[in-house]
Amino acid sequence: MGYSLKHIIKEKVKSYYNDIISDYKHFHQHPELSFHEFETAQYICSVLNDIGIPYGANIGNYDNGKTKISGTGILAWIEGKEPESKTIALRADMDALPIKEANEIDFASQNEGVMHACGHDAHTASLLSAARIINDLKDQIRGTILFIFQPGEEKDPGGAKLMLQDGLFDKFKPDLIIGQHTYVDYPVGTVGFESGIIMASADEVHIKIKGKGGHGAIPHELNDTVLAASQVIVSMQQVVSRRSNPFKPMVLSFGKFIADGATNVIPDEVVLAGSLRCMDEDERNKAKPIIRDIAIDVAKAYGCDCEIEIGDGYPCVDNNAEVTALMRSYAGEYLPEENVKGLPKRMTAEDFGFFSQQYPSTFYRFGVKSEKSGTGLHTSTFLIDEKALETSVGLLSYLAVRYCS
């Protein structure tokens, strides 16, 4: 079964290759920011209509005619024999980033200041053509395969969270969920799997230090908000160095410090913003009140007030050991074994974590690096080698059909 299915899917990838590239270039040329993926969603729906794959939203009450989830999200499905015997969900994110593209290519972004600089165009194109291939093979499927086209991965609160809240799985309950992502450190044709927590949680920290500003020459008559804010940031370093478990990675970084004063003016207010990243949910929950206490108490020591907000952002991406081992073994059937590698853990975050917290899941990466590819993620010259799409489409299709065979 494994060899014959592999051969069939590889032939399908070849037959649909022009469609794959056409979809990818369209998405790259027409990027849309988080929760504004309207044209992207319309394009996907038009392709699903052409293929004859059903899709909708709030599936438990499908008669309401609603076709989008959380604004632009789409759930499509293919049911094979014994559709309730097993269910697997495949997810792709659709949104782009507020970056001006610098690539000199004939399909460069036409939306000024917006760019697919993270590979979501490749993810969406891959899932769309996986749907084409799987639909052709639905007579060989036992179970149901779901296709999740998700908005807003790049922006809090995350499209995954909102889709789940909006009834994504009202009707279909997945046994497991798979996500894939471009990886600039691996060459085209390779993939990486790793079980356990592989990506950090991410919580935004927003702080305002308020006091009585005034002339810098008379600090004894003021509350020095700049000094207080500076000390808050310095004191925050103890959260990681002295208040967290050293065996549980954590990063607390502040990238925003706005003191809108002058050489001789201490402002009434200073704004700080940063990010807390954790590889352990218990450490994450423990760190938040510590950060809050430090900010408030340090500001108070300088005679200032403090307003602080720490949102509930993305949870850790936790790859289920059993699911990851199974999918990695399938990948070893489809690809040369030496092309199936492990993955390093990353302190970056992904809202796929919302899925992995509720359902057995695995999130793997496919290599896009070659002499033709561009620079790293979230840069103005990010670009994949299009040959990587052969692997991303083929493997995703194989994993789903193999599981439902």
CATH superfamily of the largest domain: Zn peptidases
Overall strand count: 16
Which strand order do you get reading across the main beta sheet? 1-2-4-3-5-16-6-15
Query: What structural category do the secondary elements indicate?
Result: alpha/beta
Strand content: 15-25%
Average of pLDDT:
95
Largest sheet: 8 strands, mixed
Integer-rounded radius of gyration: 24 Å
Gross geometry: elongated
Query: What top-tier CATH class of the largest domain fits best?
Result: Alpha Beta
Known CATH architecture of the largest domain: 3-Layer(aba) Sandwich
**What gap, in angstroms, lies between the N and C termini?**
9 Å
- CATH-defined fold name of the largest domain: Aminopeptidase
The count of helical stretches stands at 10
Give the % helix: 25-40%
Order of helices and strands: HHHEEEHEHEEEEEHEEEHEEHEHEH
Spans of at least 5 consecutive residues with low confidence: 58-65
Number of domains: 2
